Amino acid sequence: MSGEPTEAAGVAVPDTKLAREATTLVRDTTSELIYHHSRRVYLFGSLQGRNRDLSFDPELLYIGAMFHDLGLSERFHGSGRRFEVDSADEARRFLRAHDVPEDSIRRVWTAIALHTTPGIPELMEPEVALVTAGVEYDVLGIGYEDVAAADRAAITALHPRPDFKRRILAAFTDGIRPKPETTFGNVKADVLAHYVPGFERGDFVTTILTSPWPE
After folding, report:
1. At 3, is the pLDDT very low, low, confident or very high (cuts 50, 70, 90)?
2. pLDDT recorded at residue 1
3. How many C-alpha atoms does 20 have within 13 Å on its Cβ side?
4. Which residues pair with 147 in a beta bridge?
5. 5-22 residue pLDDT tens
6. Rounded CA gap, 198 and 7, in Å?
7. Is residue 12 within a helix (H) or strand (E), and if so which, with residue range?
8. For range 44-66, the mean pLDDT
9. Which CB contacts under 8 angstroms, 24+ apart, belong to 117-123?
10. Is residue 56 a contact partner of residue 130, using CB atoms and an 8 Å limit?
């Protein structure tokens, strides 16, 4: 894996051709911030999988974790789609190019597309549930005490998070500022409301009341 650590906190990083190529792609196309965050998402998601006694495919979980924020990159700023969908589509292209079975691709696509939609992923396949669990752990601190302090320390020693809260919010802002309409009905509207002057949320009630229906 090009010198990358292959184990942390008792979790093995998949050392397959697919995983190695995914690692290289993400390192080459995203920031150090997103790279380290994505690796932590895999590691923390795996530990939460153990805590929940879930059987999952480590390689698919790794791909989902590594690709989940790829859509924040500048090349997707004009897509007009939610960044989660751009990320999921990139993962699907990558997996199809490697002749991965369609059911596996579907699980990875769904895991990435739903990782900011709370209340649904945890009811789906383990890989879907655990990408979200890893994201929620690393970004929101949900279930913080579920992981032993020594395991947290081992993971953050390998993949540090200096000033992570501020920097990840800045990355979210930069990634979605060019397409504010994609935040309607999802948590990223909170980001633009905090950091983009003049941003106005789409309002579900107003959308219904002003629809073309006469009644």
Report:
1. low
2. 43
3. 8
4. none
5. 688 999 999 999 999 999
6. 45
7. strand 11-12
8. 98
9. 117/186, 118/187
10. yes
User: Letter for the amino acid at 97?
Assistant: A
pTM assigned to the model: 0.95
Amino acid at 67: F
Number of neighbouring beta carbons within 10 Å of residue 102: 11
pLDDT at res. 6: 80
pLDDT digit string (tens) for 92-102?
A: 999 999 999 99
Instruction: Tokens 């929620």: give the residue.
Output: 136
pLDDT digits (tens, 9 = 90+) for 70-90: 999 999 999 999 999 999 999
The DSSP line for 117-167 is -TTSGGGS-HHHHHHHHHHIIIII-TTGGGS-HHHHHHHHHHS--TTHHHH
The C-alpha atoms of residue 56 and residue 122 are separated, in whole angstroms, by: 13
- Token pair 């060019």: residue: 178
Q: Which two tokens stand for residue 176?
A: 């979605």
**Given a cut of 60, is residue 128 above it in pLDDT?**
yes
Distance CA 128, CA 192 (A): 26
The Cα 78–Cα 114 span in angstroms is 21
What is residue 8's DSSP assignment?
A: E
The residue assigned the tokens 């989940």 is 68
Q: Which of 195, 92, 144, 157 is nearest to 84 (CA)?
A: 92
Q: Is the pLDDT of residue 49 over 60?
A: yes
